[in-house]
Amino acid sequence: MRDTTTVNASHIINSWYIQSWIGTPPKPFYLLVDSGAPNLSIESTLAPKEKQGDSPMYDPSQSSTAQQLLGYTYSECYGSGYCDNGVVHTDVFTIGHVGLTNIPLLVRTNNNERATGIRTGNLGMNFDKRGMTTSPHKLPTYFESLIPFLDAPVWTVDWHASPRTGQFQFGYIDSSKYVGDIAYGFVVTQDHEWVIEVQSVQAGYDDADLNKVKFRVMLDTGTGGGTISREIADLY
């Protein structure tokens, strides 16, 4: 049976988080939904005390369905400069009302910066068919594991800067979220991230000239910033 699900997003310090449930019994954790990364990784009690912050931490020993994949390790770094590494467990992972068993979790045992606040980890949502950054073999990403259970192999984002509310929807496109027709463009494969090519830009009012300026944009839900070239900025 295929399914769909909708998850409310919380906007905290310029980033969007969703609540997930991990383990048996299930415990809640807030994860950053990151379309710019492949890994599903989480802070854990397996890290030394001096590496633990005040964020909620996953404890595999408290879940009856947690299983370590012996011999598997991982390492990752992000554009912010944060790096971590650790081991791999499988467990029950739920977002919305869709729960999957035996999902690989990258369990952090070391990092270069202690985590603070509500964020517990990253839910990577890029489309890297090679899988997550695990060794000795690449394990499938969460979205790759989820696709067989969805009505359609899609996920969508609905964010509102004011008020700061939003949703992630998995498996369908909600027609109530937009007016008119959706314009589709090809994804330009670049390091397995969601990159599109823009053909032209219109800056200003509706009657402003359409400027033919070709450039590529990475759609990254894991960062709160955005950059454009000087050429594009000068159009404004």
Key attributes of the depicted protein:
236 residues; mainly beta; Cathepsin D, subunit A, domain 1; 2 domains; six-stranded mixed beta barrel; two-stranded antiparallel sheet; 2 helices; globular; PEPTIDASE_A1
Strand ordering within the main sheet = 2-3-8-4-7-6
Describe the oligomeric state of these chains in a short phrase: single chain
Q: Unreliable stretches, pLDDT < 50, 5 or more residues?
A: none
The CATH topology label of the largest domain is Cathepsin D, subunit A, domain 1
Helix content: under 10%
CATH class of the largest domain: Mainly Beta
Classified in CATH, the superfamily of the largest domain is: Acid Proteases
**Number of self-contained structural domains:** 2
Q: What count of helical segments does DSSP give?
A: 2
Secondary-structure element order, N to C: EEEEEEEEEHEEEEEEH
Mean pLDDT: 87
Give me the count of strands: 15
Write the layout of secondary structure elements.
Layout: E1 5-12, E2 15-22, E3 27-34, E4 40-42, E5 67-77, E6 83-95, E7 98-111, E8 119-124, E9 134-135, H1 142-146, E10 155-160, E11 165-170, E12 195-198, E13 201-202, E14 210-211, E15 215-218, H2 230-234
Parallel strand pairs: 3-8, 4-7
Antiparallel strand pairs: 1-2, 1-11, 2-3, 2-6, 4-8, 5-6, 5-9, 6-7, 10-11, 12-15, 13-14
Characterization of this structure:
Pfam families: Asp (PF00026). It comes from Staphylotrichum tortipilum. Residues 16-236 form the Peptidase A1 domain. The chain is built from two helices and 15 strands. The chain folds into two domains: 5-170, Acid Proteases (Cathepsin D, subunit A, domain 1, Beta Barrel), CATH 2.40.70.10; 185-236, no CATH class. The strands form three sheets. A six-stranded mixed barrel has the order 2-3-8-4-7-6. A two-stranded antiparallel sheet has the order 12-15. β13 and β14 (210-211) form a beta hairpin. The protein is globular. Helix content is 4%, strand content 41%. With 236 residues, the protein is mostly beta strands.
